[in-house]
Amino acid sequence: MHVRPIDARQHLDFVAKQGSASFLQTPAWAQVKSEWRGQSLGWFHGEHLLGAGLVLYRQLPKLKRSLAYLPEGPLLDWDAVADAPREWLDPLVRGLKREGAFGVRMGPPVVTRRWGSETLKAAVATGQATKLDSVPADETTDVGRRLAAALQASGWRPPRAEGGFAAGQPQYVFQLPLAGKTEGDLLKGFNQLWRRNVKKAEKAGVTVELGTADDLPAFHEVYVETAKRDGFTPRPLPYFQRMWQAMSAEDPERIALLLARHEGRLLAATTLVRVGRHAWYSYGASSTEGRDVRPSNAVQWQMMRTSLASGCDVYDLRGITDTLDPQDPHFGLIQFKLGTGGEAVEYLGEWDLPLNRPLYAAFDLYLRRRG
């Protein structure tokens, strides 16, 4: 096994053969994250391509040393990696060292546990569990257990147990399975409040339409309002313009902008990203005005319908925390997503391998203080 750089076309062809991959592991994402240096890598046995991944390098100020980061990747046969982690990962590490990496961070796209909506609703109703970890999962994967043990034995550091959202990609997400379902099935899976809100938006005349790059400034205006209301730092408009341009150039169906309007006013807007059979709710914005006509439910429902019509197996509502405590400020997020009838999914999380311990420790402290 050896690892070497590949071009964007090889990378995309490999993704296409897998059916899907995280959009953070497509070549276009390197153009979106312009403050990082991107590189596509391939895993080869002879000349046969067995895996691919996007590495983002973040250089330390004044030093020619970088953190090598593979967000939600790489795309490998993780069952095989769990059996022989050094065979697959040592060639990667050797190559990253040659690129000047002082540490490696990766997020294997491996599901470890799933909790269905009925299980979660029962846990919330009884009030006996305040964390997902305290609720018996409906599914626990063998590959997740074996891979975690193999990585730790190989010197990789597991994800930190932190409350709230971590600095990297979410370990817990909420997903709505779509395979084999109709729009009617999805509506039946909603709780009563979600069904009522979708109908209320339709009755009030809320319309949801696809936008273009020209609509990004309007989206961003509502997004900034959302950030101010919810207390987070918004990304600048050029970030979304760069994201649109890079993703659309890679695949015309990679990204979509959905705009929910009522009586001509833009009340909610979202970006929807798709790679193969997996679709993600990427960014969302909603105005404080007009909440009574439920534009957020309307735009979410349209994203689900669009994903279903595109042949997706999964509609991914992205990150949640592990809380089930109604007193926790993050509880409202899982409560909103739980109404769709989907499931909470735990991934293996982001694992680190320090290559230069002093530099790694300094950079880790910097990220923790910043975040």
TrEMBL record:
Superkingdom field: Bacteria
Keywords (A to Z) from UniProt: Acyltransferase, Cell shape, Cell wall biogenesis/degradation, Peptidoglycan synthesis, Transferase
Keyword Protease: no
UniProt cross-references to InterPro entries, sorted A to Z: Acyl_CoA_acyltransferase, FEMABX, PG_Glycine_Bridge_Synth
Protein family membership: Belongs to the FemABX family.
PANTHER family noted in UniProt: LIPID II:GLYCINE GLYCYLTRANSFERASE (PTHR36174)
Name of the protein: Peptidoglycan bridge formation glycyltransferase FemA/FemB family protein
Highest classification ranks of the organism: Bacteria, Bacillati, Actinomycetota, Actinomycetes, Motilibacterales
